User: Fold these one by one.
Assistant:
Number 1:
Amino acid sequence: MKKSFQLNAKSQIKQTIAIMSSKGGVGKSTVTALLAVELSRNGKKVGILDADIIGPTISRLFATQAKVVGQDGFILPVSSALGIRFISSQLLLDQSDDPIVWRSPLVLDLIRQFYVDVIWGDLDYLFIDLPPGTGDVPMTVLESLNVNNIIMVTTPQDLVQDIVAKGIQMAKMVNKPILGIIENYSYFICDQCQKQHALFHTSDRPSIWQKYQLPLLAQLPLDSALPKLIDSGKIETIEMDGIRQFIQSWRF
Amino acid sequence: MKKSFQLNAKSQIKQTIAIMSSKGGVGKSTVTALLAVELSRNGKKVGILDADIIGPTISRLFATQAKVVGQDGFILPVSSALGIRFISSQLLLDQSDDPIVWRSPLVLDLIRQFYVDVIWGDLDYLFIDLPPGTGDVPMTVLESLNVNNIIMVTTPQDLVQDIVAKGIQMAKMVNKPILGIIENYSYFICDQCQKQHALFHTSDRPSIWQKYQLPLLAQLPLDSALPKLIDSGKIETIEMDGIRQFIQSWRF
């Protein structure tokens, strides 16, 4: 079942990092985009492969109306204002609300194409934005792509962390190293009275990074200005302290 | 590809409702459970089939440690304190953090078993809690189970609604009626200064229920007390105005 996908000769990638959260809706794609943006600001060449074929958000985050272009049998990625190169199933659709109601083999084949047929060029980092769950797609990406590291995204909620724990166990099963955990929606600060709300902190049980002895890379607030900036196509203007500090402390 | 699954003779179900959101993390499972709880309080017999085989949460929501029991080749569902009968892949696991790293055909076969081999008994309502996306599982459930209605769950965020729109289009493709939309995380009220925050309201674009002319069944707050109650196994004590009003207005 395990089959290794090889990059084409026009793609040289120094490090491939899968962004994973077995739970949906924790902000995985947003975190992926913010990491890419911060690395770009630091002069790194970054690509994003949106492996969430069924529920793609990466091209929406970078607010592009571009369509994918082919070249000599290869696929050219789309570039953001900052020069982040990305590919997403959304770029293939005529109408943005067209559903992709594909059976699993088709989905897996498109991911293979996004990896081997895209001319990624020289990249310092390729992020793979995985769909939720521990099913076909995450398994195929971890087994068949040359993934060097995994970043897990979670929220503080016990129920969410119980599901993210399944992703951690899956990474262990395929012997892929987890760089650490980014906790999203860690707190919310009321802009009127400054009260800090731990919206999703549900118990004093040890967090998954404690339970599995993994580095905590960042804790990010739920900032109500963010969804607005993101939905209006301004993700490349966002600076988040937690993301910046993590990228600065990261030894490239 | 379309194949119809038949209930066994010991299951009589008046109405089967799929709870769907092509986007993960919008609170779909919580909404499913809260609808079931409110209907139970109104004397209805309710079951929940957790079709999110890879990321199951229903048994976690009802805080059960029970394991599934077989009987004469059939499967008995687990019962909550209020008498809600449910089945979930989580009930089959030895360790709660065991990942289910199954390929798609196995997942689909388990859903079939959960529908045809479970002794549901007499039910007024069977809710099918779908996984995120518009892939294999939602397609199979909508095509092969006798689904009478769909309830879509969303948040106010444009980006989320763009993905939920794909689910609406998918329902149209298979000619299944959508009962309406439940909007979750509509607002948050600071308990110190009472400011109401529209956390995920990102634009004044028409909402999907306006765009697709669907009934808005409820708008639910992000209530920071809720995750705590849920994670400590007290979901059957929760009363939410929006849920109660919707159930009361619903002609059974």
Number 2:
Amino acid sequence: MTINSIPSTQLRLTSNITSAGKLILSLETIPVPEPAEHEVLVRIEAAPINPSDLALLVGPADISTLQASGTQDNPTITMDVPESLLKPMAKRLDTPMPVGNEAAGVVVTAGAKASHLLGKTVGIAGGDMYCQYRCIPATNCLVMNEGTTAKEAASCFVNPLTSLSMVETMRMENHKALVHTAAASNLGQMLVKICQADDVPLVNIVRNEQQVAILKQLGAQYICNSSSPDFMQSLVTALIETGATLAFDAIGGGKLASQILTAMEIAINHDAKEYSRYGSSVHKQVYVYGGLDLSPIVLNRAFGMAWGVGGWLLTPFITRMGMERFLQLRQRVANEINTTFASHYTQEISLAETLNKEIILGYTKQATGEKYLITPQK
Amino acid sequence: MTINSIPSTQLRLTSNITSAGKLILSLETIPVPEPAEHEVLVRIEAAPINPSDLALLVGPADISTLQASGTQDNPTITMDVPESLLKPMAKRLDTPMPVGNEAAGVVVTAGAKASHLLGKTVGIAGGDMYCQYRCIPATNCLVMNEGTTAKEAASCFVNPLTSLSMVETMRMENHKALVHTAAASNLGQMLVKICQADDVPLVNIVRNEQQVAILKQLGAQYICNSSSPDFMQSLVTALIETGATLAFDAIGGGKLASQILTAMEIAINHDAKEYSRYGSSVHKQVYVYGGLDLSPIVLNRAFGMAWGVGGWLLTPFITRMGMERFLQLRQRVANEINTTFASHYTQEISLAETLNKEIILGYTKQATGEKYLITPQK
């Protein structure tokens, strides 16, 4: 079944790293697919550019070498990839990769066993979202409540489910409070609201006063500014009050993870009576889920032996929490898409504009408060 | 019940860090304790100096400032502790700390419910072992088989149970092979023998050709020399062949943990067909259990998102594996104390000699192949 008229071809954005060391971004024209029995075809109305999209879109390319060519409607962007960074890319060389982690749109065609979704506004995730029509299994659709628009639903997967899963991780691993870095981000603001609603103490670490102000306005209780001279002291105080022993770190480079573990250890030992040569026996964990700083992580190990630092990704965590709980979280996102999980965009751009030089320079800055929304039907 | 005559007082070695920033090592004369109902009194015959003892014994003190005073029989050692390192020591300041993780000796007095141990040679652990008589619960004694001497049993806890527990950790966390650093150490040699007996592939990382030779003589199959220019290549090859995704690292400073994770990721992706922007989904883990290099750990994150680095200690792991399994491992140690778990000492010293300047300079070097045994009855 189909509603509206569906074109036979569509545009899709791809990123290709060539073995000659060039990254090429362009739009390709491809057929609109037909959904199978359990699938739906979604007309993509809106897709955000998240930090996690940039890894595939721009990856290791040197933005300062960006060259634009082609026409306004069919632009091509070329950048150099430093030779030393080509090797980890070996498996993707000379293969145009579709891009885009999540999007939202309207189901315009449905397979025989997915017709209940026809006409619904849905959020979807799974890559290849920077296109105009996307075929996907019906079970992968986050069905929005009546009245929710595709633009409102565009960011319903990555940030909402990541922030909810941080709180889930905290519960599963027996911590009682959280630390979050780059905490004024779109995701960070969602986490503040979730923790307020769920009564979870949250220590927010930000990098400047502007970000402090954003979180104060949301009513965040613990805000520590890492640029402030009393950062460590304020962090220790917040950790003593909250008892947080789990941190999610979006930055992932430099000394911040080490500082967090050290402050946790000081807070834990605050009331200790006896010296322990191995430090406290309380496990302290930092999960790195982003890479805003790609420099090495430097751990000074002033935090005993009960510690861990590791990578954290949403997808394997979903497997770990199980489908039943995941569906509960998805429903919460649908119900709170305009409150807890509301996203704000500073610019709406077409697929062609996504390959505009000035716009690329804008969204690759990853500045707090700036977020781009691709509207591929424009 | 008591065998032999027991003196009323004994010598005990203590380490005291004063609030004035001095570390003082000395011998104190204390009463010989009386065992309670479930306890035994062990006459300590032999106690090794392990790297893990040095943290408490010498800790943050600056060895180059070492000053000896007192008499030959009642020596006192003083060293400066840099002021910046005093703060983490706050809880132990001005409190003489007894030292020594493990020892072996003969049960010379037993409480009413522990008399079955009277006259037995036992290995014991739990701190405060650098003394002449130690009271301890009977259940904490690792009872040696007939014919085993106290010197043979002296190192029956720390290295044997740590190396056995590394293999246990591997099994519990679903890895199929191990990487070990500083692999020519006393502990590393035990691990080589355990892995040979248990058919566990083991990749040994050492730092020089002398250590390569030690492990070759033991029949170790995979030996990678981190000083060699082809280190990374040989490590990747060994990881492809073994499939090891778990490493135990005694060094804990510098780039080695990062290199191991990177080599694991390269090995895992060796046969991968597709590019994954997040790296492989196979979890790669490095547990840091020692601190031969106290400089920061530097992680370059060229190994995807499925990774962890963390501290590892024997004691919490024993709780995790459970008492039943722990007792099985203890019995294996008793049975194999002169084969798999044989330790060799380069020097036997009395308690007073433990506080001799030249000897301190010797055992604090932590040189491979050099191991000191304290014989407190001398």
